[in-house]
C-alpha cells in the first residue's frame, strides 16, 4: 500500500512536472513567434546586424573612388594660395609649422623655402571655386562637385597613409573600404563581384600599389577586390580551359554542385554553399565580363567625352570608362588607382603630365553618369592619400621645384550620390599649411561615405580575434555639411 | 489568537485615521504650504502606490472565489491582505494629496485625485461590509477593481505623458509633411518638446511654472521669465538651460531623463535665432542654414511610403541572378527593381513584377533589349517614381505606355534613337521632374521645343561631342608571327566601328584618299612593312601603326662574325641571325645580338644557285634604352676578287623617344654571283642632345639577317 501511495505521489509529481513543462514549452513557442529568427540557426549579433542593412535610406547606391596614388599637390590643384607666390623663397615661419614632423627626405634640409604654384588659378562656376589651369575639364564641372580643402590624415608616408585611407588603420590586414561595403551591402548584380579594382600608371614619379589595399582582411574572401587588368584576360582564371565548351563547363559545375550539396547536407558547413555560389558567379562572369569590357558599342561621343585615350586599355581614361560600365552594371564599389603623383622634384613638369592623364576622364565620368541619370545614386571621389608641403624640397626655381609629403591639409573632391554639389568645404591658412576651418579627418571622410551608403559606421562591425572592428576604428564623425 | 485580533483592530482603527486625514487634506486651502519633512512623505507617493494596488487586487480575489472562503484560515489571509491594502491605499492617498500641491494641477490631476480617494473609501466600505449580501459585495468589488486600474493609469499618464501605455501599438509610420508643407515649429520644434520636455511641463504637471503644451505657455515662459529672446539664442533661458553641464541642477532635461541630441539642440537654437515664430514654413528659412538642411533630409529624402509592404516571400522569389528586388532600406515598404545581364534577359519575367506593383518605386532596365517588349503593364504601378530605360531601343509605343504611369517623376531614356514622333510623345509627360535624354543628333530646335513643353522638368541632353575634334587612336594590327614561309594574314582593327582604316604596304604614310581601304584581312607573301591609319568624320586622322613581316629567307652556306657582340648580348652568336626566330620586343631576351663599341660586321657565303634579290636587317629600336637606328649600313660584295659597295645607307635618325619597336631595313640587291657578302651596321657613337644620355654611345640590336 505504502508503495502505491509513493508511486501515486511520484506519478503525481511526474504529471505535475510534465504539465508545468508544457507551460514552459508553450511560452517558448510564443516567444519564438515574437522573435522570428530565434530558432533559425543564424545566431549572433552579426546576422542580426546584416539583416538590418542598410541602416537607413541610402543616398548613394554605388561608389567610384578615383584614387590619385602618390598624393597630388593641393597647391597646384584646388587650394589657391597667392601668398606663397608672393613669398617665394622665404622660409616657412616656425609659428606655422608648429613642430610638424618631417619625412626623411627633407629632414636634412636647413631651409624650408616657400614656393607658390607655377600654374595660374581662376574661379569657376556658381561656387566660384578656385581651380588651377592644370584642371580645365574639372573646372567645367565644378558646380557638380564638392571640393573639400580641409582633409587631414595621421600618416606621413605613402604606405601607411594609403592603407589608412583604404582600411581605416595604418597597419595592414584590415578590410578595405570596398570590402566593408561589399560585406555590408552585398552585390547588386549577382553576375559581378561587388568590389572591383582598376590600376593605371602616369608618367610622374610613382609609388606602388599592392593587393593588400583591396584586401578583405578578416572578412570572408568573397569581399576581396577583384582586379581587372588590361590584358586579354581582364579577370584572371575566368576563362574555361582551351577546348572546354560552355555546356561542358555547365555540366561539370552541376556535378560539383551536386557533390557539394551532399557534403553540405552532411556537415552543414555554410562555407560549402558559399563555394557553390562562387562557382556559379564565376560561370556567369564569363559572359558578364566581356559584355562590360567591350568598348566598341560606346557611341563615339563617349570617346570624345573621355578622350581618345579611353580606347587604350590600361590608361586612366580607359579605367574611368570601365568604372562607369561596372558601376552602371551594379558593382557596389569600383576602386581606381592612378600612380605617379609623388612630385618630390620636377613638380611643374610632372604634375602637368599627371593632370593631363586624369583631368578629362575624371570630369567625363561625372558628365557621363549625369546624362544617364546615374549621378544621383553614384558617389564619385577623387583624391590622394595626403597633401604636399608649401615649401620646396631640393633645389628651388620658379618653374622647377618639388614638394614633400604633408598630412596636415590637403584637398579632395566628391560628386553625386547625395553629396552637396557646387560647394567648397573647409579652409586652410594663407600658407596652405594648417586647416583653419572645418577639418575633415580620414575617419570622418569614411564615416560620411558610409552614411551616404545608408550605413551607420558605428554599427557595421565585425568581431575578430576577440574584439570588434569597424572601418572607422574608434573615431569618425559624419560631416553632415557635406550631405545634400 | 489575541495578537492577530489586536493587529486587526489596530489596522481597522488606522483606516479611520487615514479617512480623516485625507478629508482634511482635500479640503485644506490651496495656499497652505507643508513643512519640508511632510513634503518628503508626499514624494514617496510614486513608491508606495504599488503596494495598495497589488494588495487590494489580491484581497479581491480572495473575496471573489467562494472556494477560498470555505477554508477559514485562507479566508482570514484574504481579509488581512485586503485590510493591509486598504491601509496602504489610505497612506498613498495622503501622500498623493501632499505631492499634488507641489507642482501638479489641471484636469488630469483632479481625475486622478478623486479616483484615488474614491478607491480608498470604497475599499474601506467593502472591508466593513464584507459579510453582507453577496450581490452587493460583487458589485462593489467590480467597481473597486476597475477603479484601481483606472486610477493607476491616470496617475501614470501624469508622470509619463498621455497615451504612454498604448503608444507602441500605434502605427510608427507618421504622415510626414513634404518639405513644401513643413513648418519649423509644428514639424521640427514641437516634436522635440513633446518627446523631451512635455512630461514635466504640461497641463497637470507644470514644473517651474512652465507649460510647453500650448503656444501661450511657450510664449509666457516660466518662473524665471520668458523662455527665449526671439532672434538671440544666447540670451535665451532655454538655450542656457539645455547647454548647462548635465550635473548642474538647472540643466534641462534633468540628468536622469532622456537628453537632447546635438541635432535637437541645433533645431531649438536655429528656431530661436530665426525669430522663434510659430507659423514659419521651413521653406522660408535660409536654405544654407543647418535647420533647412536637416529639414530637407527629414522631409524630402527620407520620404516615407505609407503603402503596405509586400510579402517577404514574394520579394525573395522575385530575386534571382538577373534581377534584384530590394527594399529602399530594411523597414521601407518601397521596392527598387534592377535588371542585370543582357544575356539572361527574359521579357516574360517583367510580368512577375505585377505581384509587387503597389510597392515598386524604381525600375532599372538599362541596356535590356525592350524593342519588342510591351510596357503597357507599367501603368498599373501606382507608386513607380523612377524608370531607367537607357539604351533599350524603345520607341513611340513604349513612350506612350510610359506616359500613362500615374506617378512617374524621373525618366532616363538616354541612348535611344528617338525621332519626331517620339519627341511628341515626350512632350506630353508634363509631370516629370527629371528627364535624361542624351542621344546623338537632337537638334537645337528639338531641344527648345521640348524644354518649352516640359517647363517644370529638368532635362539633361548630355554631351554630344559635336564641334570637338580629337585625333583618333592608331589602329591595332594583329599577325600571328613575323616570319612566314608562304603567306601571312594581317588583321587591322579599331575600337570605334565607324572609322575607315587605310593602309600601305610600301612603307609610305597612308592617306585618306588614295591608300588602300581595309575591309578584310590582308594576305602578304613577301617581306615588307605595313602602315595603317584610321580616319573618321569629325575626327583627325590617327598616327600610323606599323608592322613588319618577313619572309623567311635562305640560309647561307657559311658565315662568320668579324666583330664580337657585347659580352652581355651575344645570344647564340652568329647563328642567331639566321635562326628564323623573331626576337621579342626586349633586348635582354637572349634573342638579340647587341653592339655598341664595335659595329656589327658579318661575312657570308651563299648557295650560288639562288639569286639574291634582297637583304633585310631585323633590328630593335628603343630610344629610352639607348638603342637607336644605326648611323650607317654598308653591304659589300666580293666580285671577281674585288669588294664592291652594294648599299651604303644612313637610316633616318630618331628625333624623340618612342615606344620600343621592331624595325626591318630592307635593301633590294641587283643580283649576281657574288662570292661573298659583307654587312656592316654601325651603332650611333654619340646620342643626340635631346636625349637624357646625350653624348654617350648608343646601341644596335639585331636578331635576323634575311636573304631572299
Walk me through what this model shows.
The complex is a heterodimer of chains A (484) and B (708). With 484 residues, chain A is α/β, with parallel strands linked by helices. Chain A folds into two domains: 2-40; 49-237 and 289-482, 3-Layer(aba) Sandwich (Alkaline Phosphatase, subunit A), CATH 3.40.720. Helix content of chain A is 36%, strand content 16%. Chain A starts with a helix and ends in a 15-residue tail after the last strand. Chain B folds into five domains: 2-160; 184-301, no CATH class; 312-460, Ribonuclease Inhibitor (Leucine-rich repeat, LRR (right-handed beta-alpha superhelix)), CATH 3.80.10.10; 476-549, Immunoglobulin-like (Sandwich), CATH 2.60.40; 554-707, Galactose-binding domain-like (Jelly Rolls), CATH 2.60.120. Chain B contains 17 helices and 26 strands. Chain B has a seven-stranded mixed sheet with strand order 3-4-5-6-7-8-9. A five-stranded mixed sheet of chain B has the order 11-17-16-13-14, with no helix packed on it. Chain B has a five-stranded antiparallel sheet with strand order 18-20-25-22-23, with no helix packed on it. In chain B, helix 15 links the parallel strand 6 (386-388) and strand 7. In chain B, helix 6 runs antiparallel to helix 7. The longest helix of chain B is centred in the N-terminal third of the chain and has 32 residues, at 72-103. Chain B is elongated. Chain B starts with a helix and ends with a strand. Chains A and B meet through helix 9, helix 10 and helix 12 of A and helix 13 of B.
Amino acid at each position: 500500500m505504502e508503495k502505491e501511495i509513493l508511486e501515486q505521489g511520484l506519478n503525481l509529481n511526474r504529471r505535475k512536472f510534465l504539465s508545468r513543462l508544457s507551460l514552459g514549452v508553450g511560452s517558448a513557442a510564443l516567444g519564438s513567434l515574437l522573435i522570428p529568427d530565434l530558432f533559425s540557426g543564424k545566431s549572433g549579433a552579426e546576422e542580426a546586424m546584416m539583416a538590418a542593412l542598410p541602416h537607413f535610406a541610402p543616398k548613394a547606391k554605388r561608389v567610384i573612388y578615383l584614387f590619385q596614388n602618390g598624393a597630388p599637390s593641393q597647391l597646384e590643384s584646388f587650394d589657391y594660395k597667392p601668398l606663397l607666390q608672393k613669398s617665394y623663397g622665404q622660409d616657412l615661419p616656425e609659428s606655422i609649422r608648429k613642430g610638424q614632423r618631417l619625412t626623411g627626405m627633407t629632414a636634412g634640409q636647413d631651409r624650408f623655402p616657400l614656393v607658390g604654384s607655377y600654374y595660374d588659378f581662376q574661379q569657376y562656376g556658381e561656387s566660384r571655386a578656385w581651380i588651377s589651369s592644370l584642371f580645365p575639364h574639372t573646372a567645367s564641372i565644378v558646380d557638380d562637385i564638392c571640393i573639400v580643402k580641409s582633409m587631414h590624415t595621421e600618416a606621413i608616408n605613402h604606405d601607411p597613409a594609403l592603407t589608412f585611407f583604404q582600411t581605416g588603420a595604418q597597419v595592414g590586414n584590415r578590410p578595405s573600404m570596398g570590402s566593408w561595403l561589399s560585406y555590408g551591402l552585398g552585390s547588386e548584380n549577382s553576375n559581378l563581384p561587388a568590389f572591383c579594382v582598376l590600376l593605371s600608371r602616369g608618367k610622374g614619379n610613382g609609388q606602388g600599389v599592392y593587393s593588400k589595399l583591396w584586401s578583405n582582411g578578416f572578412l570572408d574572401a568573397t569581399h576581396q577586390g577583384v582586379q581587372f587588368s588590361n590584358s586579354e584576360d581582364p579577370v584572371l582564371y575566368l576563362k574555361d580551359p582551351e577546348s572546354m565548351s560552355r555546356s561542358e563547363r555547365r555540366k561539370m559545375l552541376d556535378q560539383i554542385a551536386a557533390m557539394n550539396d551532399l557534403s553540405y547536407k552532411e556537415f552543414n558547413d555554410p562555407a560549402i554553399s558559399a563555394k557553390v555560389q562562387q562557382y556559379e558567379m564565376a560561370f556567369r562572369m564569363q559572359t558578364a565580363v566581356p559584355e562590360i569590357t567591350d568598348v566598341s558599342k560606346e557611341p563615339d561621343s563617349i570617346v570624345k567625352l573621355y578622350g581618345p585615350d579611353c580606347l587604350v586599355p590600361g590608361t586612366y581614361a580607359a579605367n574611368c570608362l570601365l568604372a562607369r560600365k561596372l558601376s552602371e552594371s551594379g558593382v557596389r564599389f569600383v576602386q581606381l588607382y592612378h600612380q605617379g603623383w609623388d612630385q618630390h622634384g620636377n613638380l611643374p613638369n610632372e604634375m602637368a603630365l599627371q593632370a593631363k592623364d586624369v583631368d578629362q576622364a575624371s570630369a567625363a565620368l561625372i558628365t557621363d553618369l549625369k546624362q544617364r541619370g546615374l549621378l544621383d545614386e553614384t558617389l564619385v571621389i577623387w583624391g590622394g592619400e595626403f597633401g604636399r608641403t608649401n615649401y620646396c624640397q631640393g633645389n628651388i626655381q620658379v618653374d622647377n621645384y618639388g614638394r614633400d609629403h604633408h598630412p596636415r591639409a590637403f584637398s579632395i573632391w566628391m560628386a553625386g550620390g547625395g553629396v552637396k554639389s557646387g560647394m567648397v568645404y573647409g579652409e586652410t591658412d594663407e600658407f596652405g599649411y594648417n586647416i583653419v576651418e572645418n577639418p575633415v579627418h580620414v575617419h570622418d571622410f569614411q564615416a560620411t561615405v558610409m552614411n551616404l551608403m545608408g550605413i551607420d559606421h558605428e554599427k557595421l562591425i565585425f568581431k575578430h580575434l576577440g574584439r570588434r572592428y569597424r572601418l572607422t576604428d574608434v573615431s569618425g564623425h559624419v560631416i553632415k555639411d557635406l550631405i545634400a | 489568537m489575541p495578537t492577530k485580533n489586536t493587529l486587526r483592530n489596530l489596522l481597522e482603527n488606522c483606516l479611520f485615521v487615514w479617512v480623516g486625514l485625507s478629508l482634511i487634506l482635500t479640503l485644506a486651502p490651496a495656499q497652505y504650504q507643508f513643512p519640508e519633512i511632510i513634503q518628503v512623505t508626499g514624494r514617496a507617493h510614486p513608491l508606495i502606490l504599488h503596494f495598495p494596488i497589488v494588495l487590494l487586487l489580491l484581497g479581491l480575489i480572495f473575496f471573489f472565489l467562494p472556494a477560498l472562503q470555505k477554508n477559514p484560515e485562507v479566508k482570514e489571509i484574504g481579509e488581512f491582505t485586503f485590510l493591509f491594502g486598504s491601509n496602504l491605499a489610505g497612506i498613498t492617498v495622503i501622500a498623493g494629496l501632499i505631492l499634488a500641491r507641489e507642482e501638479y494641477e489641471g484636469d488630469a490631476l483632479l481625475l486622478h485625485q478623486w479616483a484615488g480617494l474614491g478607491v480608498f473609501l470604497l475599499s474601506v466600505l467593502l472591508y466593513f461590509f464584507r459579510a453582507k449580501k453577496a450581490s452587493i459585495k460583487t458589485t462593489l468589488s467590480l467597481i473597486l477593481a476597475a477603479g484601481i486600474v483606472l486610477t493607476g493609469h491616470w496617475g501614470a499618464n501624469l508622470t509619463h505623458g498621455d497615451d504612454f501605455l498604448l503608444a507602441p501599438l500605434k502605427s510608427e509610420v507618421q504622415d510626414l509633411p513634404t518639405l513644401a508643407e513643413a513648418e519649423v515649429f509644428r514639424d521640427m520644434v514641437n516634436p522635440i518638446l513633446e518627446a523631451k520636455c512635455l512630461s514635466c511641463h504640461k497641463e497637470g504637471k507644470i514644473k517651474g511654472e512652465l507649460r510647453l503644451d500650448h503656444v501661450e505657455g511657450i510664449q509666457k515662459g516660466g518662473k524665471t521669465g520668458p523662455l527665449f529672446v526671439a532672434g538671440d539664442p544666447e540670451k535665451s533661458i532655454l538655450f542656457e538651460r539645455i547647454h548647462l553641464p548635465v550635473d548642474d541642477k538647472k540643466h534641462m532635461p534633468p540628468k536622469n531623463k532622456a537628453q537632447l541630441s546635438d541635432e535637437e539642440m541645433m533645431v531649438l537654437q536655429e528656431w530661436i535665432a530665426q525669430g522663434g515664430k510659430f507659423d514659419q514654413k521651413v521653406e522660408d528659412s535660409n536654405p544654407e542654414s543647418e535647420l533647412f538642411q536637416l529639414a530637407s533630409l527629414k522631409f524630402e529624402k527620407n520620404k516615407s511610403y505609407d503603402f503596405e509592404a509586400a510579402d517577404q516571400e514574394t520579394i525573395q522569389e522575385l530575386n534571382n541572378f538577373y534581377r534584384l528586388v530590394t527594399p529602399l532600406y530594411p523597414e521601407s515598404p518601397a521596392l527598387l527593381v534592377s535588371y542585370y545581364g543582357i544575356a539572361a534577359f527574359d521579357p516574360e519575367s517583367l510580368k512577375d513584377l505585377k505581384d509587387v506593383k503597389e510597392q515598386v518605386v524604381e525600375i532599372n532596365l538599362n541596356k535590356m533589349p525592350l524593342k519588342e517588349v510591351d510596357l503597357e503593364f507599367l501603368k498599373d504601378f501606382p507608386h513607380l517614381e523612377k524608370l531607367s530605360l537607357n539604351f533599350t531601343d524603345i520607341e513611340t509605343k513604349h513612350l506612350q505606355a510610359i506616359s500613362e504611369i500615374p506617378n512617374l517623376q524621373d525618366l532616363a531614356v538616354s541612348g535611344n534613337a528617338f525621332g519626331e514622333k517620339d519627341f511628341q510623345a515626350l512632350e506630353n509627360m508634363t509631370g516629370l521632374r527629371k528627364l535624361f535624354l542624351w542621344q546623338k543628333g537632337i537638334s537645337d530646335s528639338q531641344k527648345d521645343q521640348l524644354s518649352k513643353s516640359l517647363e517644370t522638368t529638368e532635362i539633361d541632353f548630355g554631351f554630344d561631342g559635336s564641334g570637338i575634334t580629337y585625333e583618333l587612336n592608331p589602329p591595332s594590327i594583329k599577325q600571328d608571327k613575323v616570319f612566314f614561309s608562304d603567306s601571312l594574314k594581317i588583321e587591322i582593327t579599331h575600337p570605334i566601328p565607324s572609322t575607315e582604316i587605310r593602309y600601305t604596304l610600301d612603307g609610305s604614310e597612308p592617306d585618306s584618299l588614295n591608300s588602300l581601304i581595309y575591309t578584310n584581312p590582308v594576305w602578304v607573301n613577301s617581306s615588307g612593312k605595313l602602315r595603317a591609319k584610321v580616319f573618321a568624320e569629325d575626327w583627325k586622322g590617327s598616327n600610323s601603326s606599323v608592322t613588319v613581316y618577313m619572309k623567311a629567307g635562305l640560309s647561307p652556306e657559311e658565315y662568320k662574325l668579324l666583330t664580337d657582340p657585347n659580352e652581355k648580348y651575344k645570344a647564340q652568336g652568329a647563328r642567331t641571325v639566321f635562326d628564323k626566330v623573331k626576337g621579342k620586343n626586349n633586348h635582354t631576351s637572349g634573342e638579340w645580338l647587341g653592339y655598341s663599341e664595335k659595329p656589327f660586321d658579318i661575312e657570308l657565303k651563299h648557295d650560288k644557285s639562288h639569286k639574291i634579290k634582297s637583304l633585310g636587317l631585323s633590328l630593335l629600336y628603343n630610344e629610352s634604352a639607348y638603342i637607336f637606328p644605326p648611323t650607317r649600313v654598308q653591304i659589300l660584295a666580293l666580285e671577281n676578287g674585288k669588294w664592291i659597295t652594294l648599299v651604303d645607307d644612313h637610316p633616318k635618325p630618331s628625333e624623340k623617344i618612342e615606344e620600343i619597336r621592331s624595325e626591318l631595313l630592307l635593301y633590294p640587291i641587283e643580283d649576281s654571283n657574288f662570292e661573298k657578302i659583307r654587312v656592316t651596321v654601325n651603332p650611333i657613337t654619340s646620342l643626340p642632345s635631346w636625349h637624357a644620355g646625350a653624348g654617350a654611345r648608343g646601341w644596335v640590336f639585331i636578331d635576323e639577317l634575311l636573304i631572299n
